[in-house]
Amino acid sequence: MRDIVVLIFLAGCIIAALKHPWWGVLSLAVFSYMNPHAYAWGFVRTLPVYYVLFLVVAFRTFLTKEKQPLPKDWRVKVFILLWLYFGLTTTQAYMQNEAWQKYLQVTKIYIPFYFTLVLINTRHKLYCLIVTIAASIGIVAVKGGLFAMLHGFSARVYGPPGTQLEENNAFAVAMLITIPLILIWQKQELRPWLKKGLLFSIPIIYASSLSSWSRGALLTMTALTLMLIWNSKRKFLAIPLVLVGAFVVKDYLPQEWFGRMETLETYDQDASAMGRIVVWIDGWNHTLEHPFVGCGFEGWRYITERDWHSSYVEMFSEHGFIAFGLWFSLILGTLISLTKLPKQTQGIEGMEWVKDYCFMLRASLICYMVGTAFLGLSYWDLLYHLIFIAVLLKKFALEELAEKTQAAHAVKTANRPKLSPQGLIQQAKKV
């Protein structure tokens, strides 16, 4: 039965992509983050569903006229340069077979963003993409949160099978990154029942993240909560709600959970934490000796004992400091852009949405920066979705701002009193 449902859903996605290619972008996001066919029981589990959909979207993208040129944003160029640089470092990688396989995998992650940049060409389509990502991760997160509460937080919550979010620590961070996207959706939603439902889902997702037993998620959750309180217009209501929620939840969390979280303070006594520090030191020392190309994809197998367990260490260790600078500039530059953009649209009637989008996307990006300090997720598609959503947000906001400025100028010019010929002569004499 599940196989039939997934096949019907896939067929619907393909038909939708053939009719309107930008719907194919949304479909790719669903299969990337939720991977619905992995929940089937039969032959559908082994079908190359994502690649079939990718080929359909690629075919329609090159035929359709409903697209825009690549945005003239420096981040697009840096992204392409970063991908090319990965190719250079792969030629010098220690683990050649593994490195080229990983480079191909990263390429498969990166290429679909071309469709995002050219097919998501209106503000409405951008909103639909945000909603799709939020729903794809949020549905699984809410399911996990309900499961966690029913089992007293004793069982760990994992992400959709066969995705980059499958591992419990990664899924915990992904859920927290998704909360600001859900709030964008909630802010724009007009249906009261769904608006309330989205708000109600947030504490459930918090519970799901807690049940991942991830220490990095706890730090990310703290950062996200502080950011949401800071941006709230009802801080005096938000703070008590957070405190009450924490007080209630602590009675249901098992003692083993607290024991694991306490290792954040006693990391020097925790074998896992100390193992990560050793790996980070190995990666840093190796990069000092090979600053331009690092050790290549999967190079940790050659120079240290375990995976990098940090996106930052992973990037400079595998590709050197130049690649790290390109990668980190995408993140930092996007944070700066999301901070500056609301100031440009401040006070412009009808553009309040820009501030809401910018703050929430910035909160999601900061969640990524905090959470992946302890997870090797530098090639995560969710990161690049956030960056390119910010690129498109800036493009649409500036276009709308230009239109409103031009319209205001036209109205002002039309309302200016016309002078008679004698009046024009008098004005010329004054000049």
Detailed description of the structure:
This protein has 18 helices and no strands. The model has no long low-confidence stretch (mean pLDDT 88). With 431 residues, it is mainly alpha-helical.
Comma- or semicolon-separated keywords:
single chain, 431 residues, mainly alpha, 2 domains, 18 helices, 0% strand, globular
The major sheet is characterized as:
none
Number of domains: 2
Q: Approximately how much beta-strand content do the residues carry?
A: under 5%
| Helix/sheet category | mainly alpha
Overall pLDDT: 88
- Could you tell me the number of beta strands? 0
- Specify the overall morphology: globular
Termini gap: 83 Å
Number of helices: 18
Element-level helix/strand string: HHHHHHHHHHHHHHHHHH
* C-alpha-based Rg, rounded: 25 Å
Uncertain spans: none
Amount of helix: over 70%
Quick description:
The protein has 431 residues and is mainly α. It is built from 18 helices and no strands. The protein has two domains: 1-65, no CATH class; 66-413, no CATH class.
Write the layout of secondary structure elements.
Elements: H1 2-19, H2 21-33, H3 49-63, H4 74-91, H5 96-110, H6 113-119, H7 123-150, H8 168-188, H9 192-210, H10 215-231, H11 235-250, H12 255-261, H13 271-289, H14 300-303, H15 311-345, H16 352-371, H17 381-415, H18 421-430
Helix pairs in contact: 1-2, 1-3, 2-3, 2-7, 4-5, 4-15, 7-8, 7-9, 8-9, 8-10, 8-16, 10-11, 10-16, 13-15, 15-16, 15-17, 16-17
